[in-house]
């Protein structure tokens, strides 16, 4: 499992979803932190990066109370976050040009199954770290 040990930031104003995602990620061998707002996401990402333990992946709800996921994603990118950002939403959506331009790498529809979350995290973390774990 390439994602084992990955650090994931979960940004969603639904406390139940954050807890569920955190539990599934823990079963997968990942570490996670959950926050409810874009401001908390920025602060957590900055703290983690400053401590030398930057997040490998962000799961980001498209519909937060105070701002959109697109706004938060663009801010995280502007603040230097380079890892994958996955849009999560209960709405039917596709990862269209607007979401890609905002900085999203993938999308995951809520409610997601454990298998869907695992596949998404494995794929996104594997994509960025794959070049370092492959041996000749």
Please give a structural write-up.
The longest helix has 20 residues, at 114-133. This protein has a five-stranded parallel beta sheet, with helices on both faces. The model is unreliable at 130-136 (pLDDT under 50). Helices cover 46% and strands 18% of the residues. It has helices spanning 15-27, 38-50, 69-78, 97-102, 114-133; strands at 7-11, 31-35, 57-61, 85-89, 106-109. The chain is built from five helices and five strands. The chain has a single domain, classed as Response regulator (Rossmann fold), CATH 3.40.50. The protein is of the alpha/beta class.
Order of helices and strands: EHEHEHEHEH
Q: How is the biggest beta sheet arranged?
A: 5 strands, parallel
Strand content: 15-25%
Count of alpha and pi helical runs: 5
CATH H-level name... which superfamily?
A: Response regulator
Structural class: alpha/beta
Overall geometric form: globular
Number of strands: 5
User: Terminal Cα separation, in Å?
Assistant: 19 Å
* Gyration radius, rounded: 14 Å
**CATH class placement:** Alpha Beta
pLDDT averaged over residues: 90
Low-confidence stretches: 130-136
CATH topology: Rossmann fold
* CATH architectural grouping: 3-Layer(aba) Sandwich
Defining traits:
136 residues; alpha/beta; Rossmann fold; 5 strands; 46% helix
List the helices and strands and how they pair.
Blueprint: E1 7-11, H1 15-27, E2 31-35, H2 38-50, E3 57-61, H3 69-78, E4 85-89, H4 97-102, E5 106-109, H5 114-133
Parallel strand pairs: 1-2, 1-3, 3-4, 4-5
């Amino acid at each position: 499992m390439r994602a084992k040990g990955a650090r994931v930031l979960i940004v969603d104003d639904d406390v139940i979803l954050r807890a569920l995602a955190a539990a599934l990620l823990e079963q997968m061998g990942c570490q996670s932190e959950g926050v409810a707002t874009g401001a908390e996401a920025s602060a957590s990402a900055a703290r983690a990066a400053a401590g030398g333990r930057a997040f490998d992946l962000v799961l980001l709800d498209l519909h937060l109370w105070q701002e959109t996921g697109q706004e938060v994603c663009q801010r995280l990118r502007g603040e230097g976050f380079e890892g994958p950002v996955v849009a999560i939403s209960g709405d039917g959506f596709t990862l269209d040009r607007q979401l890609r331009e905002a900085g999203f790498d993938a999308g995951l529809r809520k409610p997601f199954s454990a298998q869907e979350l695992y596949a998404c995290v494995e794929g996104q973390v594997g994509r960025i770290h794959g070049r370092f774990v492959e041996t000749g």
